[in-house]
C-alpha cells in the first residue's frame, strides 16, 4: 500500500464491536479478565491500551518499522532510548541538538554515568574519529534544529555498525513522509509526535520505532517499567493527525520553498538556512535521502534588536515554541528552544541572537510572505 493509504488505514480499521470508522478512545485504567491468566490481550493500561496499540501499529508502518512505542513526550521517548544503556557506555551525538535533548544529556543523564560527546556529523570522517570502543549509540537529528544541518544517514549507520553501536535518528523535522531512516540503515527512529505527526498543536507525545525484535522487547519493558506512556486521548489525537499527514506535508513543503525563496532575496535577511535552497551546502545530500524539504527554516537578521522588532511586528505568524502545526509559528532559538545551550556553544553552531526560526504552516503562502515582508520592513536599514 502507498503512504497515504497506510496513514489512513493501518491500525485504524473499523471497530469490531460497533463498526465505528474511527478508533475509539479506550479511557480505562484496567481490563476485566475472564479467568486467572485469561484475558483479551489487555490487563492494565500502563502496559497496553487498544487506542495506543492502534497508534503504535500505524507509526511502525509509516516509518517502515515493525514495532513502535508511544510515550508521553518526545523527551520521554529519547529518555527511553538512552535507558537501553548503562553507566560507562558512550553516546556520540550530533553537535547540533534540540536544546531539551542537550539539557537531558548534559544535566540529567551524565549524572547516571552515561558518557556523552559531540561531533559534527555532517562530516562522516569527524563522526568516525569520535567513535570509541565503548560507544553504544550514535544519536543524530537530521535536519537539525534550528540550522538545518544534514547527516548522511546511510554513512552514519555504516560507521556505527562497524563499532557495534546503534544509530538513532530524530526524524521529527522531516516526518516519515519525507524521510525514512530505518530504510537507510538506522536502528532507531524517534519522534516528537507533538509536531508534524499530530499536526494540530493540540497534543504532546513521543514515539520510538524499530525493526529489530530484541531491541523492541527491551523498549517494551522500559515503556511499561518507567510508565511514561501516551494517554488514550493523546493517542487518538495523533491517529487523527496522521490521516492528513501526506497532504499537510506537501503543503508545508510548497510553502516552505516559497517563504525560503522570498527570504533569500530580501535585503534585510543576511542568511537563510533551508535545505531546498541552492545555497545550502548539503542540498544534494538532502535530495538523495529526503523526498522533500519540508516547512522548517531559519534566517539571520543580524542582531537581537532586529529579531525582537521582527517578532513583535508579525501579525499572521504566531510567536511560540514548537513546530509542525497547520499554523505558522515563529520563534527565537537563542532565548526559547535553545536557551539551555551555553551561549558560546550556540554561537559556534550559528544560533546567534539574530537567528529566527519559522515552522511554515499551510496557510496561503502569499499571506505568509506579506506578513514577513511588512515585519522585515520595520527593521532599520
Explain the layout of strands and helices.
Layout: H1 3-9, H2 50-62, E1 67-71, H3 74-82, E2 90-94, H4 99-107, E3 115-119, H5 124-130, E4 135-141, H6 153-162, E5 166-170, H7 175-178, E6 188-192, E7 206-210, H8 213-226, H9 232-242, H10 245-265, E8 271-273, H11 283-289, E9 296-300, H12 304-313, E10 318-319, E11 329-331, H13 343-349, E12 355-359, H14 365-376
Helix pairs in contact: 1-2, 2-9, 12-14
Structural class: alpha/beta
**Average of per-residue pLDDT values:** 96
Which percent range describes the beta-strand content? 5-15%
Share in helix:
25-40%
> At the first level of CATH, what is the class of the largest domain?
Alpha Beta
Q: Give the terminus-to-terminus CA distance.
A: 54 Å
Instruction: Tell me the CATH architecture of the largest domain.
Output: 3-Layer(aba) Sandwich
Classified in CATH, the superfamily of the largest domain is Type I PLP-dependent aspartate aminotransferase-like (Major domain)
Write out the strand line-up for the largest beta sheet, numbering strands in chain order.
Answer: 1-7-6-5-4-2-3
SSE string, helices as H and strands as E: HHEHEHEHEHEHEEHHHEHEHEEHEH
Number of helices: 14
How would you describe this structure in keywords?
14 helices, 12 strands, five-stranded mixed sheet, 14% strand, 2 domains, alpha/beta, 381 residues, seven-stranded mixed sheet, 37% helix, Aspartate Aminotransferase, domain 1, Aspartate Aminotransferase, domain 2
